[in-house]
Write a structure and sequence with these properties.
Strand content: 15-25%
CATH architecture of the largest domain: 3-Layer(aba) Sandwich
Mean pLDDT: 94
Number of domains: 2
Number of strands: 14
CATH class of the largest domain: Alpha Beta
Structural class: alpha/beta
Number of helices: 15
Helix content: 25-40%
Shape: globular
Distance between the termini: 24 Å
Strand order of the largest sheet: 4-10-9-8-7-5-6
Radius of gyration: 22 Å
Largest sheet: 7 strands, mixed
CATH superfamily of the largest domain: Type I PLP-dependent aspartate aminotransferase-like (Major domain)
Order of helices and strands: HHEEEHHEHEHEHEHEHEEHHHHEHEEEH
Bound molecules: pyridoxal-5'-phosphate
Low-confidence stretches: 1-8
CATH topology of the largest domain: Aspartate Aminotransferase, domain 2
């Protein structure tokens, strides 16, 4: 088969400067010829940091070729919507390109306040605080709300930014097995014996970013109440995706009033950059005044804020988008299963296709898919991204994918699957 991908430039041999501090040794070892990353780059199969030359929502231009985008978190398909772009441009004209300061000091615009009020109302909560990214939101909220004598109970498959939050927090941290209420309960019982009276925070993704699994919110609410713990949901992949009107994972289970803290991001359904936390007034004000990343980092740029406000308008007005997104998720999940692929227990518009444990097969699979005109996200066992050491092709969908797009994606997977013995005739 002829590969049309450009060969990656050869990696020059990197020599450590003998006068250099030893802390940099690991960087030179990482990039030494024959090490893993340079080897994959030299093979022409390196799939990361690929430049997208144009992005039209369901279509992207990569290496001058149009491909179907099945690897973005642009769930509502609004990132290239003309109305959203115009709102962003208008805000930039009125307020400039950036805030050049933190919310605490000179970085609060009237539209930041408008967005906080709007989101609190949308999520049925008293108050909201914005952060500059979704990552900073979870770090900031966890760091802001916990202190030395508290305990954090974190699902094993939680996103890296939750893990980062637990690392910057002075509280003790316990990880419970993924979605295992039994294990969580055991850890809570033990903690109550060892640290009676300690404050407790249970934290979980609402929809898990790699598997598309929905957290067991009902059971978590019950366990939190039993052990006097607070429950925090990271709804990065849930707000604007699941629950009535896209109100997230607690709303999906009809339990919004039982979850005191929910975070989210604007980098997915809301096609922007930034994040938020919603909850009771005092809790949100405490976080606003205590989260280091909120106080000491510049606020969301005006164009990003205006983008989210416009996306919220559209989400509320164009109810077909969520309906279509769910039809698509169902269609694709069933389509992959019929073609013999393992999609784990995906329940959302994130559908992982399991490739196996061999990274080079995963890279070849991804390259072949791109040649078939389909862009997905190759996730390999790297820094704990996927549980169980599996490589997956993480596919994700937009309300604006057409039926033809979906069928093209499925047939491309079938062709590439046959080539690699994965799918109907293969294992995994
Ligand atoms: C579950 C989850 N939480 C938080 C984040 C961080 O959001 P952002 O990319 O907006 O910083 C992500 C991003 O992928 C995510 O998947």
């Amino acid at each position: 088969m002829t590969r049309t991908l450009k060969a990656a430039p050869a990696v020059p041999a990197v020599q450590a400067d003998p006068r250099e501090p030893s802390i940099f040794d690991k960087a030179h070892a990482f990039m030494a010829p024959g090490a893993f990353v340079p080897k994959v780059i030299a093979s022409g199969l390196y799939p990361y940091f690929r430049a997208i030359e144009r992005n039209e929502g369901t279509r992207a231009i990569v290496d001058g070729r149009e491909v179907i985008m099945a690897g973005s978190n642009n769930y509502l398909g609004l990132a290239s919507d003309q109305r959203v772009k115009e709102a962003a441009v208008l805000a930039m004209q009125q307020y400039g390109t950036g805030c050049t300061g933190s919310r605490f000091l000179n970085g609060t615009l009237d539209i930041h306040l408008e967005l906080e009020t709007r989101l609190a109302a949308f999520m049925g909560k008293e108050a909201c605080v914005l952060f500059s990214t979704g990552y900073m939101t979870n770090m900031g909220v966890i760091e802001g709300i916990t202190s030395k004598n508290d305990l954090i109970f974190s699902d094993h498959d939680n996103h890296a930014c939750i893990v980062a939050g637990t690392q910057v927090s002075p509280a003790r941290m316990r990880r419970f097995r993924h979605n295992s209420i039994g294990h969580l309960r055991r850890l809570l019982t033990r903690a109550d014996k060892e640290y009676p009276g300690a404050g407790k925070l249970i934290v979980t993704d609402g929809v898990f970013s790699m598997s598309g699994r929905i957290a067991k919110v009902k059971e978590l609410v019950d366990v939190a109440a039993e052990f006097d713990a607070a429950l925090m949901l990271d709804d990065a992949h849930a707000v604007g995706v699941i629950g009535p009107g896209g109100r997230g994972s607690a709303a999906y289970f009809g339990l919004s009033d039982k979850v005191p803290l929910t975070t989210g991001t604007f980098s997915k359904s809301f096609s922007s950059l930034g994040g938020f936390a919603v909850g009771d007034h005092d809790i949100i004000e405490y976080i606003r005044h205590n989260a280091s990343v909120h106080i000491f980092s510049a606020s969301m740029p005006p164009s990003c804020v205006a983008t989210v406000l416009k996306c919220l308008d559209i989400l509320e007005e164009e109810t077909w988008r969520l309906k279509r997104l769910w039809e698509i998720s169902h269609y694709m999940r069933e389509g992959f299963k019929e073609a013999g692929f393992n999609v784990w227990t995906s329940q959302a518009p994130i559908i992982p296709v399991v490739i196996g444990k061999d990274m080079s097969t995963a890279f070849r699979f991804w390259t072949d898919l791109l040649e078939e005109g389909v862009f997905v996200n190759p996730i390999v066992p790297w820094r704990g991204a996927v549980a169980g050491g599996f490589a997956i092709m993480r596919t994700s969908y937009m309300a604006t994918h057409t039926d033809d797009d979906l069928d093209h994606i499925l047939s491309a997977f079938e062709r590439v699957g046959r080539r690699h013995g994965i799918g109907s005739n293969g294992v995994v």
